[in-house]
Amino acid sequence: MATIKVISGGAPKEVFGKLTPLFEKQSGHTVSYSFAVMSALRDRLAAGEAADVLVMPTNVLDGYQTSGVVREAGRGVLGLVPVNAVVRTGAAKPNLSSVDAVKRAMLNARSIVFPTPGATPSGTHMGKLVETLGLADALKAKIIHRPALEGGVELVKSGEAEIGFYPKSEVINTAGLELAGPLPADIQLTTIYGAGGDRRQRGPRRGRSLRRLHARPGAPRRLDARRFRRAVAASSLSPQRKSDVSDFRQPPTAKGSSSAKPELDVREEVDALQRVG
């Protein structure tokens, strides 16, 4: 039996922790995961590191498919990940019911933590949101940039940061933290995560069976149980269409290939999610 190497962003980490033992039991293979923020994964792939499966936001996978890194065949959609606020267990939860309420919560907070803009899709989104809401100057001394995988949740647990903003799947069921709620729909980021095979990896395509497990009918229910959301109506995604990592830095294209990134049709993504659900 073989070891399947998976390189992934941090959002699906808990989901994979629940699904992988089932896959290993059924297949006899073992899975080796490497989780990191997207900017770090991008640098590693650019340096030539390869894997059997790459798990990333679908727009990022689109860029790698264009540049010849990811195979088109066998790509799958795993689920939807929204941004949520978290607080220390027992702390008062901020009101996030409207855009104005979010602004007040940020202004009233002693300190706020979210991923470094440019390092992760949620960090990029939060950085732009602070600017859009006109809070950059007011919050400058309050904001801490720290991805969840690099100690951001620890800052909330310790009380150093009063509120954290992270993808829900990265913080759900974390001891010492409580979910305060999602961002309102008008300012929410919904990231669509997918998986694709790395065409640079030599030998048998061992990642196919793993991708099939996570995309088969039973898996989405488990994904949903771990807050990796299933398909939603296209109308609920449309207001946030551009936030599906379209503003996040895309990987460089290979020499001689087109630099144009194929536009992702939300309806196609939703249809794909409904087919696997």
Describe this structure in words.
This protein is α/β, with parallel strands linked by helices and 277 residues long. The chain folds into 2 domains: 3-80 and 190-276, D-Maltodextrin-Binding Protein, domain 2 (3-Layer(aba) Sandwich); 82-187, D-Maltodextrin-Binding Protein, domain 2. 37% of the residues lie in helices and 20% in strands. The chain has 12 helices and 9 strands. It has helices spanning 13-27, 38-46, 58-66, 99-108, 121-132, 136-139, 152-158, 168-171, 207-215, 218-225, 234-237, 266-276, and strands at residues 3-8, 30-35, 53-57, 76-88, 112-114, 143-145, 163-167, 177-182, 190-197. Strands 1, 2, 3, 4, 5, 6, 7, 8 and 9 form a 9-stranded mixed β-sheet that branches. Strand 1, helix 1 (13-27) and strand 2 form a beta-alpha-beta unit. Helix 1 crosses helix 9. The two termini are 29 Å apart. The relative contact order is 0.22.
Order of helices and strands: EHEHEHEHEHHEHEHEEHHHH
Estimate the global geometry from the Cα principal axes: globular
Largest β sheet strand count, sense and barrel closure: 9 strands, mixed
CATH architecture label name of the largest domain: 3-Layer(aba) Sandwich
Assign the CATH superfamily of the largest domain: Periplasmic binding protein-like II
CATH class group of the largest domain: Alpha Beta
Total strands: the figure is: 9
Mean pLDDT figure? 78
Domain module tally: 2
What is the CATH topology of the largest domain? D-Maltodextrin-Binding Protein, domain 2
Q: State the end-to-end distance.
A: 29 Å
% residues in beta strands: 15-25%
Uncertain ranges: 213-227, 230-277
**Structural class, from secondary structure content?**
alpha/beta
